[in-house]
Amino acid sequence: MAGTRFTPEREGELYTAVLGLLRDVGYDALTMDAVAARARISKATLYRQWGSKAELVVRALRCEKPVFLDEVDTGSLRGDLEAVLEMTDDDRLEQDTALMRGLMQAASGSDELHGALISQLINPETDGVDTLLRRAVARGEVAADNPALGYVPHMMIGALAARLLIENRPVDRAFLRHYVHSVVFPALGV
């Protein structure tokens, strides 16, 4: 962020306000005016700091989800993915899934939102997964030429979307754990 410096606490309050509005009204109905009112900040400051609604929303999401997958290293791919699953709970997964479903729909009509989601949420997550997978290859757990290596992020995102679409149920840790053990590990030969 350029310009005004916020304390981490104030920035957290602002992001909480953004995510509260996002949950209440959805992305399309969320306005910078509403964020400014809820967060008790000027709209000019919002635009000066974040530039756009898309950037502000995605930064708020990233701040709320500060999981750094590349820092997870238990010594095995199984252990790493189990550790990642333990970093969240079912309530959080349900909230995140609902938010992401709404944002994916909004992103289909907004190149700006789509670009912000890719650069600030999706790419850091897939980079983290790639780091976990490269370590697994280096340890000999996964063959370097395994064609499924490039599709692990797709498999995980697909699991989130498919559970809602097929079963109309939110994703929970039990589902993800079973999915990883039944689909991801076999595809990787683990």
What labels would you give this structure?
elongated; Homeodomain-like_sf; about 190 residues; mainly alpha; Tet_transcr_reg_TetR-rel_C_sf; DNA-binding; TetR family transcriptional regulator; single chain; transcription
Q: Strand-residue fraction? A: under 5%
Query: Mind describing the biggest β-sheet?
Result: none
User: Could you name the ranges where pLDDT drops below 50 across 5 or more consecutive residues?
Assistant: none
Please count the beta strands (DSSP E, at least 2 residues each): 0
- Rounded to the nearest angstrom, the distance between the terminal CA atoms is 42 Å
Q: Share of helix among residues?
A: over 70%
Report the C-alpha radius of gyration, rounded.
18 Å
Domain HTH tetR-type: 8-68
Organism: Streptomyces rutgersensis
InterPro entries: Homeodomain-like_sf, HTH-type_TetR-like_transc_reg, HTH_TetR, Tet_transcr_reg_TetR-rel_C_sf, TetR_C
DNA-binding region: 31-50
